[in-house]
Design brief:
By secondary structure, the protein is of the alpha+beta class. About 25% of the residues lie in helices and about 15% in strands.
């Protein structure tokens, strides 16, 4: 059982534990975007960076395993600066600031990131996709974190979603770009539950009933 130091606090962790798990065991909050504890670590967003003694630069805490005697600084200035720049770039691609209750907004607050200093190419809404009966989709809020795709695969085992495009044109599609209604989607809600931006949200039964009453 390795013993590591997290911001000066010694903590014993199980074999195979990551630096992120060690930090949380020590009561330290490390912001994340592509991470969901129900999913296999992905290490794509680079928001969970921390300082690790002896490493040439910040490391992704969600995929870096603990080793005996590791010394970790969750407030390493370089790690925080890089993570903040990543979040600022993500925000620059959105058509509007993230809703205050979303994980993305919480991460931005944690890292002290306000309105982005520049504007990237904003995702466009997909007007050609028919509405889903139980999910509200806002493709323009997608940040390509991959969590919805992995939740569909790893939690539900449906494999209905896939990542599409590259760079500013990256997004998520159902099936072979056939739309959610025609795909293998079973409306389990795993994608909406893990989405950090409200790009996918569940339509409540109350809202569906109210819509039915109006019809």
């Amino acid at each position: 059982m390795p013993r590591v130091s997290i911001d000066g606090v010694a903590v014993d962790v199980p074999e195979g534990a990551t630096l992120l798990e060690a930090a949380r065991a020590a009561g330290r909050d490390v912001p994340t975007l592509c991470f969901d504890e129900r999913l296999a670590p992905f290490g794509a967003c680079r928001v969970c960076l921390v300082g690790l003694e002896g490493a040439p630069g910040p490391v992704a805490s969600c995929t870096t395993p603990c080793r005996e005697g590791a010394v970790v600084d969750t407030r390493d200035p370089v790690a925080r600066r890089v993570a903040g720049a990543v979040v600022e770039l993500v925000l620059s691609e959105l058509p509007e600031p993230p809703a205050a209750h979303t994980e993305l907004a919480a991460v931005a607050r944690e890292l002290g990131v306000g309105a982005p200093r520049w504007t990237g190419e904003v995702h466009g809404a997909r007007e050609d996709e028919p509405p889903h009966p139980y999910l509200a989709l806002r493709h323009e809020l997608c940040i390509s974190c991959g969590r919805c795709v992995r939740a569909c695969d790893e939690v539900q085992g449906t494999f209905a979603l896939t990542a599409t495009g590259r760079g500013f044109h990256a997004n998520v599609a159902a099936g072979i770009d056939e739309g959610f209604r025609a795909s293998a989607c079973v409306s389990c809600g795993a994608c909406a539950d893990t989405c950090p931006t409200d790009a996918i949200t569940e339509v409540s039964l109350l809202a569906l009933a109210a819509e039915g009453d109006r019809a």
